[in-house]
Amino acid sequence: MKKLVNKSSVTNFISLLIIATGYVCPVYPEITKAIGFFAFSGAITNWLAIHMLFEKVPFLYGSGIIPDRFEEFKISIKALMMEQFFTVENIEHFIENEEQEGGKVLNLSPLLNAVDYDKVYEGLVSSIMNSSFGGMLMMMGGEEALLPLKQPFIEKMQHTLHEMVESERFKHALQQGLNAHKIGEDLTGKIEVVIDRRLSELTPQMVKEIVQNIIKTHLGWLVVWGGVFGGLLGALFGFA
Q1: What angle do CA 28, 31, 37 make, to 5 degrees?
Q2: What does the pLDDT look like over 97-150, one tens digit per residue?
């Protein structure tokens, strides 16, 4: 509230200074006093109105509206975030854009690099040994006879899998399976739970501070302009 207090104090001080000048100035004293009083009344009433938003004032109905209605403010904050930012459509659009741009969602290279190709080879050998070719292979040296094929097999498997996942056909099929709409719905639900949990921790004082931090600069100018326009009205009244 420092900026608001400074603007208010300066405006009110200038208004009071103009009033005091009207009492000692020999030239147009009544007009000078009218400008000062009107400026002071405009600034002080705007300041009071702003103060009443955040603080309870005895005998003034409607004061302290922000702390009193902080539950409604929390609901409004949630509605703003869920209806304007974290909608299913927005999340769905984001996921689809990521997919189309190549690949934050569809980048499967780390997954392919994590494959244990040695186990794949061992599984292939085991399948061959357990098949009808196993007996014939035993006469040719058994599993040892296949060892020269291990490295070429692993390299070919890596190359083939990378080619497959980079193909447009595979990407299109994966996009169809991802279902961006369903992902968007799931994420929206989880985001809403997080927002609800955080909002439940807010107190009236915290809500008041949030609103003050958002609009305090602009509220300070209300006091300034209240004094300016009040002074102009005072000048018109004095010349009338």
Answers
A1: 135
A2: 765 655 544 566 676 777 787 887 788 778 777 876 676 667 767 777 777 778
Q: Please state at what angle helix 180-200 crosses helix 168-178, rounded to 10 degrees.
A: 40
Question: What one-character DSSP code corresponds to residue 57?
Answer: -
Q: What angle do CA 151, 155, 157 make, to 5 degrees?
A: 115
pTM of the model: 0.48
Whole-angstrom CA distances from 157 to 27, 117, 131, 166, 171 are 99, 8, 21, 14, 19
Alpha-carbon distance of 149 to 133, in angstroms, equals 16
Please give the C-alpha separations between residue 141 and each of 79, 147, 180, in angstroms, as whole numbers.
73, 10, 53
Instruction: Give the CA count within 13 Å in the CB-facing half-sphere of 156.
Output: 6
Residue 177 and residue 109 share a domain:
yes
Please report, for residues 15, 31, 224, the alpha-carbon distance to residue 39 in angstroms, rounded to integers and kept in the order given.
6, 12, 9
Q: CA–CA separation, 94 vs 102, rounded Å?
A: 13
Q: What residues make up the domain containing 172?
A: 89-198
Is 205 within a domain?
no
Contact (Cβ atoms closer than 8 angstroms) between residue 112 and residue 165: yes
Q: How many domains does the chain have?
A: 2
* Residue 138 sits in the same domain as residue 37: no
Instruction: Name 50's Cβ contacts closer than 8 Å, sequence gap at least 6.
Output: 4, 219, 222, 223
Q: Are 99 and 181 part of one and the same domain?
A: yes
Asked if the structure places residue 208 within a domain, the reply is no
Tokens of 5: 């207090």
